[in-house]
């Protein structure tokens, strides 16, 4: 049976043609001698491997036929109307790039067009090197770097070397699929030529004299797989064709993404990377790889919230519906769940057996430890006490952090233990009297929760950890998304969930996106990364223009990763688009009018309403924006825990938008801080306030990086 090798669809074809192309390729993959396929060579074609095939009366497929290991292979170049297909087929050529060993489809132009004349002039002008005023010239790139070292085709190298700025290089990159586009994006950064070649895993080609065999080997190179994929069954064929560009994350991985998805690690591995660099994509692929290779393995895929877990579950089902998703912990398959739901599942499954773990953590038993402590309990405890502690200690932010970062992970159970406990990374020093007063508040908090029979999230994770430490692990591989938001007891639980060993923990994180909780250091909770960490730097989601705006939000902030190292910021985008529009307004009414006007213009331009989101700070403002939009004739809907629906513009908090993406985004309330929020921040000690400021910047960074194409910012004076 022939093997089909798909490329990213080079042309936009509508749904009915996709269906016909699908039928055609199914027949082709079953038997290429079927007469109705009309597979024909083209007389005088630039490449003797070129074939056309009859999709229907009007449409033709253009393909390359390769023979290797006694089997035929068809590289599908695309589908065109009959006459166009013949022109394309006569000109295209598939070859192995002589420098980097990657497959390259070239199109010979029949006669020079005006644009080519321009190109010829610029080539001639730049053949000795880049124009001094060009971006690549300023970075110090030479023509030899591009052509002789990396294998960029000479004409494209000349265009790149003449491009005046990053946007122009990105525009050029966008015209070239696959490895060439990726190379051009990298060339616009300050990365060394060696590191670019290493990132794409480029190697000089091995030439055996058997051209088809050389081409097939080249098509299997990691960087080739950003553009070409060997189809594994009919189902995969359908997915590639139907989802087109939107589904390309499922098939066409960056070589680095592929490496992290398939590689084996001797212990915990940490993958960092800015917003939109495909961390979640790697996790989903890795879950699939592990599940396929080890059908009996118990794999846990977890993240910070239930909504994000829903998205992971959907993503895994989209990637491969045949991967078994487990419905309970400790069973084979991939169990996808939010990290707090995971703690609840461990506790529920333990039944009455959880009593010992509760005692280990809290020092006494709870009757119904699955009920959740309500928000605001710390505040009630502070208000009910006659504590003499200064306000920067007697507040909810300080106490809940002290509890989650110090008391619970170290399993402090009484005043005596708290007097002696180490408090690394905590700003405020506590003398003995203060420690006793703080402990009195903690004891009051615990007493109230004991009466209610509740646990808070950090306690539940601590209890689950203690239980797993004595009862044994319940997973073989644990994959974690949004690691920057997890608290110490979450990490203790995840550490105990899986035994130490190969591929135990795989953690994706971006410390710039920490919008919940406090800084954590993995090694304190038994997770030893020891050199097993890497970073993704290519942003697939956000245009370079929006990314620059978002990155500016982080300027001056001192961000530290889960291994206590300064977080790097060198991200780049593969896409170019309009600059974000920033409008400053004086009042709430003007803000609401401005948001409505912006959305109306997007809707009038044909953008689907459900691909537009307005992101706001809190639920109060969310309701206000929804009402204002509806009053102004823009159908809008508030999104809370539910999934977004079709037909209406989405309005949600910036926290809720975490992990999501939209075609167009309005960021509202930027720069606005309510009086209550100001008072809260003023009441914090310096370190807590500094951390709250970092989180506030991160929240704007998260929000600004949700836009794929266009970002509008409405800021209040
Ligand atoms: N190899 C790829 N090819 C095409 N699109 C990709 C690829 N990898 C990721 N993407 C797309 O980029 C976007 C961001 O990917 P993903 O959500 O995995 O990034 P992330 O790093 O987890 O982002 P965030 O931290 O902002 O949640 C998604 O739309 C995804 O489909």
Structure description:
- The chain is 42% helix and 18% strand.
- By secondary structure, it is an alpha/beta fold.
- The protein folds into 5 domains: 3-97 and 208-248, RelE-like (YaeB-like fold); 113-199, no CATH class; 253-348 and 462-542, 3-Layer(aba) Sandwich (Rossmann fold), CATH 3.40.50; 370-452; 578-716, Rossmann fold, CATH 3.40.50.300.
- A 6-stranded mixed beta sheet has the order 2-3-4-5-1-8. A 6-stranded parallel beta sheet has the order 11-10-14-15-9-16, sandwiched between helices. A 6-stranded parallel beta sheet has the order 19-24-23-20-22-21, with helices on both faces.
- A hairpin with a 6-residue loop joins strand 6 (92-96) and strand 7.
- Helix 13 packs across helix 14.
- The relative contact order is 0.08.
- It binds adenosine-5'-triphosphate (ATP).
- Adenosine-5'-triphosphate (ATP) is lined by residues 248-249, 252-254, 257, 273, 275-281, 510, 513, 540-541, 659, 661, 705.
- Its EC number is 5.6.2.4.
- Residues 252-550 form the UvrD-like helicase ATP-binding domain.
Give a quick account of the main beta sheet: strands, pairing sense, barrel closure. Answer: 6 strands, mixed
* Alpha-beta classification: alpha/beta
User: Low-confidence spans: pLDDT under 50, at least 5 residues?
Assistant: 112-127
Radius of gyration over all CA atoms, rounded: 29 Å
Distance between the termini: 67 Å
CATH superfamily of the largest domain: P-loop containing nucleotide triphosphate hydrolases
Shape: globular
Number of helices: 27
- Strand tally: 24
The appropriate CATH architecture of the largest domain is 3-Layer(aba) Sandwich
């Amino acid at each position: 049976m022939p093997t089909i090798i798909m490329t990213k669809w080079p042309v936009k074809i509508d749904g009915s043609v996709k269906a016909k192309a699908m039928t055609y390729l199914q027949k082709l993959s079953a038997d290429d001698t079927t007469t109705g396929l009309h597979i024909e060579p083209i007389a005088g074609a630039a490449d003797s491997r070129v074939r056309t095939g009859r999709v229907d009366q009007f449409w033709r497929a253009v393909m390359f036929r390769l023979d290797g290991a006694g089997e035929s292979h068809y590289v599908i170049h695309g589908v065109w109307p009959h006459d166009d297909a013949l022109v394309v087929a006569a000109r295209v050529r598939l070859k192995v790039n002589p420098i980097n060993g990657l497959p390259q489809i070239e199109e010979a132009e029949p006669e020079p067009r005006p644009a080519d004349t321009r190109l010829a002039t610029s080539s001639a002008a730049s053949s000795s090197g880049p124009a001094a005023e060009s971006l690549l010239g300023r970075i110090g790139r030479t023509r030899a770097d591009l052509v002789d070292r990396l294998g960029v085709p000479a004409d494209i190298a000349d265009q790149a070397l003449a491009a005046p700025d990053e946007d122009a290089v990105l525009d050029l990159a966008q015209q070239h699929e696959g490895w060439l586009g990726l190379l051009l994006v990298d060339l616009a950064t300050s990365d060394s030529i060696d590191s670019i070649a290493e990132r794409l895993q480029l190697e000089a080609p091995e030439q055996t004299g058997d051209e088809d065999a050389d081409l097939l080997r080249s098509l299997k190179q990691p960087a080739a797989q950003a553009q070409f994929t060997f189809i594994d069954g009919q189902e995969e064929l359908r997915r590639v064709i139907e989802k087109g560009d939107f589904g390309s994350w499922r098939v066409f991985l960056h070589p680095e993404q592929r490496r992290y998805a398939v590689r084996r690690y001797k212990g915990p591995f940490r993958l960092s990377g800015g917003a939109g660099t495909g961390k979640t994509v790697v996790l989903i692929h890795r879950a699939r790889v592990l599940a396929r290779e080890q059908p009996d393995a118990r794999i846990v895929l977890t993240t910070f919230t239930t909504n994000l877990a829903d998205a992971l579950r959907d993503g895994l089902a989209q990637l491969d519906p045949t991967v078994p998703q487990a419905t309970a912990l400790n069973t084979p398959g991939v169990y996808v769940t939010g990290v707090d739901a995971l703690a609840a599942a461990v506790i529920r499954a333990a039944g009455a057996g959880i009593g010992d773990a509760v005692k280990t953590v809290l020092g006494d038993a709870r009757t119904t430890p699955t009920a959740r402590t309500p928000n605001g309990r710390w505040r009630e405890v502070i208000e009910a006490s006659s504590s003499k502690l200064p306000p920067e200690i007697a507040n909810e932010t300080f106490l809940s952090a002290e509890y989650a970062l110090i008391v619970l992970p170290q399993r402090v159970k009484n005043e005596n233990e708290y007097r002696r406990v180490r408090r690394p990374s905590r700003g405020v020093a506590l003398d003995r009297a203060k420690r006793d007063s703080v402990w009195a508040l903690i004891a009051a908090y615990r007493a109230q929760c004991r009466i209610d029979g509740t646990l808070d999230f950090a306690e539940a994770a601590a209890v689950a950890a203690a239980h797993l430490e004595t009862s044994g692990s319940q997973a073989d591989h644990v994959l974690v998304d949004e690691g920057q938001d997890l608290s110490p007891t979450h990490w203790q639980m995840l550490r105990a969930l899986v035994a130490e060993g190969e591929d135990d923990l795989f953690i994706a994180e971006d410390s710039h996106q920490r919008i919940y909780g406090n800084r954590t250091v993995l090694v304190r909770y038994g997770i030893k990364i020891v050199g097993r960490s890497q970073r993704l730097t290519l942003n697939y989601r956000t245009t370079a223009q929006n990314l620059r705006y978002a990155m500016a939000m982080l300027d001056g902030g001192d961000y530290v990763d889960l291994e206590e190292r300064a977080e790097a910021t060198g991200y780049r985008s593969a896409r170019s688009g309009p600059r974000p529009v920033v409008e400053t307004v004086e009042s709430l009414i003007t803000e609401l009018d401005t948001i409505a006007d912006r959305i109306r213009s997007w809707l009038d331009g044909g953008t689907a309403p459900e691909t537009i989101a307005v992101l706001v700070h809190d639920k109060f403002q969310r309701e206000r924006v929804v009402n204002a939009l509806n009053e102004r004739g823009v159908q809008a809907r508030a999104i809370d825990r539910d999934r977004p629906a079709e037909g209406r513009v989405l309005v949600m908090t910036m926290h809720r938008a975490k992990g999501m993406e939209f075609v167009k985004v309005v960021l509202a309330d930027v720069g606005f801080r309510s009086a209550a929020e100001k008072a809260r921040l003023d009441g914090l000690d310096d370190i807590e306030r500094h951390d709250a400021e970092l989180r506030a910047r991160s929240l704007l960074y998260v929000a600004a990086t949700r836009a794929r194409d266009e970002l509008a910012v409405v800021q209040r004076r």
